Amino acid sequence: MAWFRRSKVSINVNDAQRKDIPDGMWIKCESCGEIIHRSQLEQQLFTCLKCQYHFRITSEQYLSFLLDEGSFKEMDRKMRSTDPINFKDTKLYKERIKESMRKTGLQDAVRTGTGKISGMPIAIAAMDFGFIGGSMGSVVGEKVARAAEKALKSKCPLIIISSSGGARMMEGALSLMQLAKTSGRLAQLSDAGIPYISLMTDPTTGGVTASYAMLGDVNLAEPAALIGFAGPRVIKQTIGKDLPPGFQRSEFQMEHGFVDMVVHRKEMKETVTKLLNYLWA
Amino acid sequence: MAKTVLEFEKPVVELEQKVEEMRKYSDALDIADEIKVLEEKILQLRKTIYSGLTRWQKVQLARHPDRPYTLDYIAMMTTDFIEMHGDRCFADDKAIVGGFARIEGEPVMIIGHQKGRDTKSNLYRNFGMPNPDGYRKALRLMKLAAKFGRPVVTMLDTPGAFPGLEAEERGQAEAIARNLFEMSHLPVPIIVIIIGEGASGGALGIGVGDRVLMLENTWYSVISPESCSSILWRSWEFKEQAAEALKLTAPDLLAQGIIDRIVPEPLGGAHRNPQQTADTLRVVIHEELKKFRKVNPDKLIEKRVEKFAKMGKWEE
């Protein structure tokens, strides 16, 4: 019998919370434990100097370093979910949305618009994992589809930065249909001969991987991002064995032929520029 | 006669057994009237039970082990079926079957998920859960159909794409994504029918089409009620609530604008009279195919993409 017992379980912090970048001047690397000054981390585009760990960042942060300064013009900024099937689990879906809006200051899990990369006009979508796990419901599907439409109509390349746990359960089959919707628009874009670059960040799983994330003319991934269809926990349960190290990470995906390149965040803009010059300029 | 009896089917089956027994003595005893009364009672009971099924009960019906599967329907409603195998990349996935067949004399490419009926055949069919090879095989067959101008009919019945190690290595996500992409601009008509379980991307992977139909007692959603329960309720025990919340039955999906038509099943479900279900399906598929006989391929593709582009609900 122990003398002391923990009265509350307070040590389990969930994954999503853990990986958010905390406020404060000094930040500890999630991977190697290195203590990094915030300004230095920003300079490094939120990657660890020592181990190259890529922190999860918001769409705003991503757009700020990928696009030319001041070039981003947001589309469909006010689009939001209507809770189409009145979904309720332990919480109302409506409440989850409100809470996520309050927490992130966003309307849903993707921001879309037009902008320029090294002077080249492009259409772009960037996802936010912080909004209900970056899940894709009607709003995400519609906004991504419209970004593809925009690229088609204004004849400019499309770039999608994915970061998602998959389709959003709380909109039922409507969420599933967003896979078909976005893939259909990408097929039209492809038939028109307009390039699409998919950029996968940690994590990109489920319905997003099984639709637009895997459909790039070129598929790029940040180092060590989790990329796959089924989640590792489900696979582990199914096969009843531990998964090999590095399973479903970017490097694994490149090794198996599903990602063209693993690109460090600091080299992303340069790489995308080079690619666009080959594909479009 | 149903071999497996679900909880809510029990009252009907018990009465049916009674009638069966009475019939044995009906030569010796004059009980014809009584049998008639009981039969009428059975009919009424069935009507009440099956009109008031909960969403979870419908999920159970969709999974009924006696329900006809793709190959059963092909045998019952088509002629001249020639099964084709393999994706020309890696393997022949047994969880997806396909080949040319004739429906009312008309040549089509028919492709569907295939479950097994006992342990052995279920292992062979991987419980109807395709690997990437299955989706690539389906795509190969669809492209073959397109090359020779034959319409495509797909039948959906899967508990999901297989979540295995090799499936990930060979690109389960890419295989499904590629199918959605390619099916979106396939230049021949595609008729999709959900004949059992339509679980998520594993079902949709062969489910993009010009017309999407659902048999009456089937379900189609973004996730199975069990998995939904385990994620959102953190327990497997809330599958009934999850099924209700997901709104995953045929009438639900018709109301959400996702499917075009519900195909009626015999009272009590497709397994009560497989041949009757197959006959209905044959007529319905033939009817649907007729609508696309003279459509220009570019228009067909545009309409198909716009059809899915409309799905979803939002405000702005």
Quaternary structure annotation: heterodimer
User: Over all CA atoms, what is the radius of gyration of chain A?
Assistant: 19 Å
Low-confidence stretches of chain B: none
CATH level 3 topology of the largest domain in chain B:
2-enoyl-CoA Hydratase, Chain A, domain 1
Number of helices of chain A: 10
CATH superfamily of the largest domain in chain A: 2-enoyl-CoA Hydratase, Chain A, domain 1
Question: For the record, what CATH class of the largest domain in chain B applies?
Answer: Alpha Beta
- In total, how many beta strands of chain A? 11
Q: What letter string, H or E per element, gives the SSE order of chain A?
A: HEEHHEEHEEHEHEHEEHHEH
The CATH architecture of the largest domain in chain A = Alpha-Beta Complex
Short structural description:
With 281 residues, chain A is an alpha/beta fold. Chain A has helices at 15-19, 38-43, 59-66, 93-104, 138-153, 172-191, 206-209, 232-239, 250-255, 268-279; strands at residues 26-28, 35-37, 73-75, 80-81, 110-117, 120-127, 158-164, 196-205, 218-221, 227-228, 261-262.
What does this protein look like?
- The complex is a heterodimer of chains A (281) and B (316).
- With 281 residues, chain A is an alpha/beta fold.
- Chain A folds into two domains: 23-55, no CATH class; 57-279, 2-enoyl-CoA Hydratase, Chain A, domain 1, CATH 3.90.226.10.
- In chain A, 35% of the residues lie in helices and 19% in strands.
- Chain A has helices at 15-19, 38-43, 59-66, 93-104, 138-153, 172-191, 206-209, 232-239, 250-255, 268-279; strands spanning 26-28, 35-37, 73-75, 80-81, 110-117, 120-127, 158-164, 196-205, 218-221, 227-228, 261-262.
- In chain A, the strands form two sheets. In chain A, strands 3, 5, 6, 7, 8, 9, 10 and 11 form an eight-stranded mixed sheet that branches. A two-stranded antiparallel ribbon of chain A has the order 1-2.
- In chain A, helix 5 (138-153) packs parallel to helix 6.
- By secondary structure, chain B is of the alpha/beta class.
- Chain B has two domains: 7-52; 59-309, 2-enoyl-CoA Hydratase, Chain A, domain 1.
- Chain B contains 14 helices and nine strands.
- The radius of gyration of chain B is 21 Å and the shape is globular.
- The mean pLDDT of chain B is 95.
- At the A-B interface, strand 4, helix 5, helix 6, helix 7 and strand 10 of A face helix 7, helix 8, helix 9, helix 10 and helix 11 of B.
